Structures
1.
Amino acid sequence: MTDLDQMRDNLLAAVEASGGLDALDTVRVGALGKQGSITALLKTLGAMSPEQRLVEGPRIQGLREAVTTAIAERKAALDRADLDARLARETLDMTLPADGIGAGSVHPVSQVMDELAEIFADLGFAVATGPEIEDDWHNFTALNIPETHPARAMHDTFYFPAQPEASTAGAGQSPSSDGELGSPRAALDSSRMLLRTHTSPVQIRAMKAAGGDKPIRIIAPGRTYRSDSDATHTPMFHQVEGLVIDKGITLGHLKWTLETFLKAFFERDDIVLRLRPSYFPFTEPSAEVDVGFSLVNGKRVIGGSDGWMEVLGSGMVHRTVIEAGGYDPDEWQGFAFGCGIDRLAMLKYGMDDLRAFFDGDIRWLKHYGFAALDVPTLSGGVGA
Ligand code: PHE
């Protein structure tokens, strides 16, 4: 039917000729809209005899598909051209003076990280780092959290899709995001990648790097991730890990270190700690640490002991973990602790909604940010 061929040629030419999204839409409505030419053809099918429909049906549908595809392709091309034009147009001259824009400020999280580095440097700790994209082994297995351990489910882990080599058994399995949280299937492969759920994998990396025969004193501040979101949880948050490995380390060293750290951090001498027995797979014994607060005009202020706030998890490094790090647990002991940095910042600087930390709202940053040259020092007061 030459009519149909003619119509196809005309429509495809019109699609190709449309120089903008509006023009393209006019072509689309003209062909496929309620009153469109192809829609009209489709309506004629109903009145045809079954034999005729068998012949004409596929032809008209073919025409509809060809035109629909051409429109989609043209739209993609126009969108791309539009984006290219915008990218070319909207250039930023980074060499322009920043007059009138105002100076930026140091985010409270960065400030607190600097304060931590400053305090712990004074106690002889180095700053260590590890990758945020971690493997299952470092994040869980080496920390004495075996594949079937319920703690994995508690961590609300963001897993990456299984590695291609490892995925043959589970072919056809769709890439998981948080859909397979903590499911045994997601955790079965210890080379599987994930977003680290805590900074504790840096314990393992630090021990491995030290080679099994040297004492270690490190803190490891950084980003961590869990699929969780409300006023006190964001999917990305910050922790600081502390690790000491040496000979003859006891719980007393842990308590003294934490007390010294918290006194320096909150810049008060009346800090009272309460160590509560707890459980972490990677420490034995484990203790959660509360810090006392007092009520001043109805507000909680750190210091005193009117009430208690949990600030960190800690304990003596588990033998299995010391072994996984390449140390002999009969010779070497250690303590470790982990602490939410965002929460430390909130307690010290008085913010009450964690989500605002990561909104990038310039007014919040101006209010809570720190001057760039206000470097924390112990002599000047860390939060100076
Ligand atoms: N990794 C633990 C958490 O994220 C904290 C912790 C670190 C506890 C080190 C003990 C020792 O909750």
Note: Residues 50-89 form the longest helix (40 residues).
2.
Amino acid sequence: MRLKLHFSRLGFCLLPLFVVLACQPAPTHVEQGATSMAQFIAGMPKAELHLHLEGTLSPQTIVTITKRNGIDYFRSVEEVKKSLADRKPGLMGFLGHHNKSRDVLQTQQDFYDATFNLLKNLKDNNIIYSEIFFDPQPFTNRGIAFDDIINGIDTGRRDGEKTYGITAELIMSINRELSVDSAFAMLDLAYAHRGKILGLGLDSGPEYGNPPIKFKAVYQRAKEQGYHLTGHHDVDVRDSLKHIWQSLDQVALERIDHGLMAVDDPALIKELVRRGICLTGSPVKRATDPRMQDVDRIIYLDAQGVCVSLNSDDPAEFETGYLTNMMVVFQEESGYSRADMVRLMRNAFTASWLPEAEKQNYLIALENYLRTHESGH
Ligand code: HPA
Ligand code: ZN
């Protein structure tokens, strides 16, 4: 559906700062109306809702931090790249490397640097609004103070927001393989910082045996404390559909991360549409994958009217990298038009936890972008 525009382009760009950012045209070397699809995607104002701070550490950043912290693995970029290349398939294979590189982060400065670097990458991808996951428990379990983690991340994103003129919110995530007591302890540690954190998530693995219902009471308390609620339902996980139903009916999650196994359950698809619950899809590709993952599932769900968005998840750990590149690959594999790509991006803004008025402004900015860049190849 197209929004009616009530602003001239100039008048529109005189709206508040966040809208000014959103209405920036594609890079200046690109001729209006003659942009290639890749340029169109690059210049599109974007939101990203499924992005793990710990999955954004580049091989070079990892090596810089291991040297600084005197860590005896990942001493060279080649070593990090080999570990990435040697991963086993599936979620647990992915987590093997992810957790090892996550563990190089130790000090407040490390968390600051990781976050500030990430915001630079977001800016380069025209991501004007993001909600970023971070997982405190593996760090606090190793004796790192919660305050060091959150203060490093919060200061890094505030400085990044000022430097790059973008907005970055935070989602604190439960490690699902850990105990309910541990999740409650994390919530207690976060209490004094809850103004800095927008939502509570659920990630890591294995997912089978650690369903969303396990954390129902934690989610309930988090909701009482003002957090938004989301949770991971990775693809190709046993009982994924059961977990998604649990999250809708018993845990009252507002959003489903991944959730693409819904393609296999027509009743679930209907329910997602009826309730307007959005899925944060992550159609990534590893170097060893013959094709990008999940393209067909996303096309199917989109055609059924499910609100599904595109997200990069762990851009340093997948060949598809950050959002612009990932969207370009998705467009090539799906054959989606410009309007289709904008519809998926509308879904990201719709699914975001932005205040309603800001959300509407961003959505208008996106429609304006499509209107002014509609032609081309
Ligand atoms: N799923 C589960 N845990 C994760 C993910 C994911 O996609 N990314 C980082 N930790
Ligand atoms: Zn994820």
Note: Strands lie at 46-48, 127-134, 167-175, 199-203, 228-233, 255-258, 278-281, 308-310.
3.
Amino acid sequence: MNKSTLGDKMLVAGPCSAESLDQLLSTAKAIVTNYPHAIFRAGVWKPRTRPGTFEGIGEEALEWLLEVRKQTGMKVITEAANVKQLELCLKAGMDAIWIGARTTVNPFLVQELADALKGTSLTVMVKNPIHPDISLWSGAIERMQAAVNSEIIAVHRGFHSFETSEFRNHPRWQVHFEMKSYLPDLKMICDISHIAGARPLLQIVAQEALDLGYDGLMIETHIHPEEALSDSQQQITPTRLHELIQQLETRLPSPVDAMSIAQLKNWRDEIDRLNNELLILLKERLQYSTLIGELKKENHVSIFQPERWKTILEEMNKRGEELNINDGFIRNLFIQIHDESVRIQAEIINREEKNFLNL
Ligand code: PEP
Ligand code: MN
């Protein structure tokens, strides 16, 4: 095994899409030198948001993946998004397939794929669905576990979010623990590329995944990332892949020297105290939302006033900037608080309407 801090963790590396035999072979050969046990990934059929963009080479590229395996000894994986694609993968003799985020959302499709996989021993990786519905994800994994005799691996690739985020797909780090509570023996890896969406963010996402004890990483790797036909912003060269892995640090769950332990304890006590104060302030603020809701009802005023909301957001952003607090955080925080105010006021108005209707 390589000497990097990845140790014996799983590495899935390779381009977003298979583009040519040359591209696959040169990428794979450069990866395998440092990571002989890495699994080589490449999308053969690409789920693209809009038509008219590169949708993958299709069946022909499966042959190229087999050639990669022949020349490097690496195991090969691609995405299968429907039964037809899966059957072609089975016929070709792929080692593994992954179920993409847009497929995991659909239990009918997942079941069809599970039925077609029955009795086979392919490794199956199941990406999280686009939206943060954990039971949909664990359900897809259970369907696969019931079908195949091999390992099923969950892949956290981040979630679509309406909140402002520097990430392409927002990581929800707590899902690691939620999934393990449903399926304690489940192996989980982290697809840092689809979370980050941009090269500069890859290192911190990889470090976070490692700190949380993920069983491995999926990293989109392309011999010429700038020329990639899909996801060019987030792909890295095999050389950069090796640097990234070497720069990962093995971190301790807590400090070891007594001074630092004591300091940490003090600061955590302060945080606990402030968290309590925050709750009391929130409670006080929401009480005003209730009073305003009643007043609006009596005066037949609508709950949501866009101008008022715009002013609050602008002022809080300005104040946040003065206090040097991240503007995305301020925005998300006040969206949450405002949503709760609107919910409380809607409840007041609905309750009164029910009385009015004698329900
Ligand atoms: C991919 O891995 O290239 C891909 C399309 O992934 P996801 O399903 O996570 O978007
Ligand atoms: Mn991709």
Note: The mean pLDDT is 93.
4.
Amino acid sequence: MDKKIVIAHRGASGYLPEHTMEAKAMAYAMKPDFLEQDLVLSKDNIPIVIHDIELDDVTNVAIKFPERKRKDGRFYVIDFTFEELQQLNVTERFDYKTGKQFYPNRFPKGKGNFKLHSLQQEIELVQGLNQSTGNTIGIYPEIKDPEFHHKNGKDIAKIVLEILADYGYKTKNDNCIFQCFDAKELERVRKELQSDLFLVQLIEHPEETKQLNHFATYADGLGPWYKQILDKKENGKWKFTSLVTEAHELGLKVHPYTFRADQLDDFSSFDEMLQVLFFEANIDGGFTDFPDKMVAFLAKY
Ligand code: G3P
Ligand code: CA
């Protein structure tokens, strides 16, 4: 865990629709350290690899099952069985209200033949490729919105931990990092569900940066938005918040999200963005939609 790591964010999602098997196979071939899986349960308790609890901004659910929307007009993964979910086509992410593609220069919306899949199917892809190629690429699952799952009578943490254990992911040495934005639930994963996996606490709100001492009582790492690390630029040089230093003092690794070559924000190139975060701010790894570019960047050092 001492080398700086590359996490393929939703697969090679800069090139193919996110969280499809095709995006995962392409990412695998780019040799990142981990492939990420966002997880939501189906009606029949299968963890589906998808970013949101809703289906209607990456699939054709509104056309295929128009009568299945809830009162709020949205279509939810949890309302469909795995068999029904497999009938949907997956496409490049779009705004479900306007139909507009989120990243217009990425894979064209509506093209190709992509499907949803389960956590088990993706683990079998990764473990199968590890066997056939001799690589040792890991998985980096995230349980999405555990509170929503509890309200719907489902314990996503417990179900996912059992599947991970069945496939041999039980301890910090098993090439699996388990992540969650919900701090109460991640603490429960360690203390009540007694997981020995490497746990990463994801954060997004400013007030969460003040709770590192508490996070360090159960987590092994921190997953902040990368902008929570940047402070300001002075005379052409970046100053940083104390987040990485404080996390490191507490023994927490820092894996920020999300580095996108087509969304550079305050940087003039992707390599400059990576140089500043990896080697000036001293992060330990990063989530990226472009794993090939981050792998190539780190290979230079
Ligand atoms: O899980 C870390 C990274 O994936 C950022 O979050 O919203 O893309 O799942 P999100
Ligand atoms: Ca995620």
Note: The two ends are 17 Å apart (CA to CA).
